[in-house]
Amino acid sequence: MKCQLNGNIRDGSAISAGSHPVRVEERLTNGKVRSSNLLVASLLPVVTNAAFSFGNLNLEGFLLGIASDDVFVALYQNGKTVRVFDEFVEIAPLPLAQTQLRVQVTDTSPGIYRVILRVNGQQAQNSPEVTIT
Predict the structure, then answer these.
(1) Above 90 in pLDDT, residue 12?
(2) pLDDT at 92 over 90
(3) How does pLDDT run across 23-78, given as a tens digit for each residue?
(4) Rounded CA gap, 39 and 55, in Å?
(5) Rounded alpha-carbon distances, angstroms, from residue 57 to 7, 26, 33, 90, 92
(6) Other Cβ atoms closer than 10 A to 28
(7) In Å, what is the CA distance from 116 to each residue of 72, 92, 113?
(8) Where are the domains positioned within the chain?
(9) Beta strand 111-119 pairing with 129-132
(10) What pLDDT, on the 0 to 100 scale, is given for residue 126?
């Protein structure tokens, strides 16, 4: 049995991170279709870089979310979530779909924080450290 995926998931133009139902179908020689049970696939966001600059936390990666997605960024330090952000700054010119995310960081003490990103309930596997000044 072959599985074919149309398009590139990673470029963010077709789908967002999150839990998605998957079903495999095979067309038989007699014209009937054999299908599998539904499975839930967890598509995770990927953070490749996090940097603090001029009061903004800038994230780069893949499947970082679009305006209609449930996205939040948390700053984690010393075993505690210190801040959670769910409002984002528009980036101009517009980057490629879902590859950049910017958060305005105010009222946060200087220090080293772990950055946690969740998109539609799925947390990025990597949580880079960032220094807030």
Answers:
(1) no
(2) no
(3) 888 999 999 999 999 989 888 999 999 999 999 999 999 999 988 999 999 999 99
(4) 42
(5) 30, 46, 49, 12, 15
(6) 8
(7) 8, 24, 9
(8) 9-41, 45-132
(9) antiparallel
(10) 93
Residues 49/130, Cβ–Cβ less than 8 Å: no
Segment (H or E) for 129: strand 129-132
For residue 10, what are its two tokens?
């990673």
Show the tokens assigned to 27.
Answer: 């067309």
The token pair at 34 is 């054999």
CA distance 47 to 126: 6
Provide the strand spans (E) within 10-110: 18-22, 25-27, 33-35, 39-43, 46-53, 56-62, 71-77, 80-85, 100-104
- Fold of domain 45-132: Immunoglobulin-like (2.60.40)
Q: Which amino acid is at 117?
A: L
Q: Which one, of 57, 55, 34, lies nearest residue 47 by Cα? A: 57
- Cα–Cα distance measured from residue 133 to residue 67, given in angstroms and rounded to the nearest whole number: 28
What pLDDT does residue 70 have? 96
Cα separation, 88 vs 85, whole angstroms: 8
* Contact assessment for residue 5 and residue 24, using Cβ atoms and an 8 Å cutoff: no
